[in-house]
Design a protein that fits this description.
It is found in: Cytoplasm. Keywords: Aminopeptidase, Cytoplasm, Hydrolase, Protease. It is a single chain. This protein is about 35% helix and about 15% strand. It has 2 domains: about 220 residues, Alpha/Beta hydrolase fold, catalytic domain (Rossmann fold, 3-Layer(aba) Sandwich); about 100 residues, no CATH class. With about 350 residues, it is α/β, with parallel strands linked by helices. Strand 7, helix 10 and strand 8 form a beta-alpha-beta unit.
Length: about 350
């Protein structure tokens, strides 16, 4: 859901035609297997110029993992881009693990990565769940945040989560009925609970096939709401290997969502007063059917120093040409002026 934006993986990604105007991808400068608490090992990559503006990229999900798309918004001649696969996600180990995997631990991991890589301050860029995590992190380590670029921000309220799984707004009733059909009729009123319980079971024997069916149904529902373009890396129909990866991703995601991402006591909006008054830009589409536009409006109204730019027509698709262009323009402006002006760097 909000939560997507990890993509199917580098091989499938490079087989697609992405929007023009993105910067070229390149091999990583460095890759790290960084051990953190309770046996988790984070996969961390650095791209671009080692002497450039330092930026950390927070992927969606939770559980999605980094995608090459997310670093191609950055000019590699101007930025040192640090991409982190969060706990249980992408190439971090163990993949799909939910034990000792909560928002508080992700925040501690970000501090660990920053200190291990010798970064005093960094630009924090996040989309979807990544934007949510970016806001939480800015309150956790405000002195380390130079600026915030937030795409399609999500507020993990009970209402927003239920709206995705129960489709109370009736956005796509036939597609939702197909999604809900994976659960027994007496459990469709709590589809998230059913998915979380089912995906937590060890994927052995028949449960492995069940996990793939659940993952495919969830993925198709997500695509229906996301408005993904044919150019989006998320738009490739998953094969068996990808379905296993999706099942791991959705295990982590459902684990977070049933707990409202541990950001409801106090609610995330009530925590925004602790954020530093740094350049902050929110990009959101008013036709986003996964992350409500009202979330971006609410965050903007509570951050007097922020700017909100509507990128209409993009839905929840980070690869949509309008959203990709807006991300590139914002980052080019920041590289030139230290603020999120429009206009590409020469």
């Amino acid at each position: 859901m909000i939560f997507m934006n990890g993509g199917p993986g580098p091989a499938a990604y490079h087989a697609l035609v992405l929007p023009s105007g993105l910067y070229p991808d390149s091999p990583p400068l460095r890759a790290h297997a960084l051990a953190v608490s309770h046996g988790h090992v984070l996969h961390v990559e650095e791209h671009g110029d080692p002497a450039g503006i330092c930026a950390v990229v927070l992927h969606g999900g939770p559980g999605s993992g980094s995608s090459p798309l997310l670093r191609r918004f950055f000019d590699p001649a101007r930025y040192r881009v640090i991409s982190i696969d969060q706990r249980g996600a992408g190439r971090s180990r163990p993949r799909g693990a939910t034990t000792h995997n909560r928002t508080a631990e992700l925040l501690e991991d970000l501090r660990t990565v920053r200190e291990e890589l010798g970064v005093p301050r960094w630009l924090v860029v996040g989309g979807s769940w990544g934007a949510t995590l970016a806001l939480a992190y800015a309150g956790f380590e405000p002195q380390a945040v130079a600026a915030l670029l937030l795409r399609s921000v999500f507020l993990p309220t009970s209402e927003a989560i239920e709206a995705f799984f129960q489709d109370s707004a009736g956005r796509a009733p036939e597609a939702w009925a197909r999604f809900a059909a994976v659960a027994p009729a007496d459990q469709r009123h709590d589809l998230l609970g059913f998915l979380a319980r089912s995906l937590q079971r060890a994927p052995t024997g028949g449960d492995a096939d069940l996990h793939r069916r659940l993952a495919l149904a969830w993925w198709r529902w997500e695509q229906t709401l996301a408005g993904s373009t044919a150019a989006s890396p998320a738009a490739v129909e998953p094969d068996r290997e990808m379905l296993d990866a999706l099942a791991d991703r959705y295990r982590v995601q459902s684990h977070y969502l049933v707990h409202r991402c541990w950001l409801d006591a106090p609610p995330l909006l009530d925590r925004l007063g602790a954020l530093p008054p740094v350049p902050t830009l929110l990009l959101h589409s008013r036709d986003d059917r996964i992350c409500r536009p009202s979330a971006a409006q609410a965050v903007h109204e509570l951050l007097a120093h922020s700017r909100l730019r509507w990128v209409d027509g993009a839905g929840h698709d980070p690869a949509h040409p309008a959203m990709a262009s807006a991300m590139v323009a914002a980052l080019d402006g920041y590289a030139l002026h230290g603020r999120f002006d429009d206009g590409r760097a020469p």
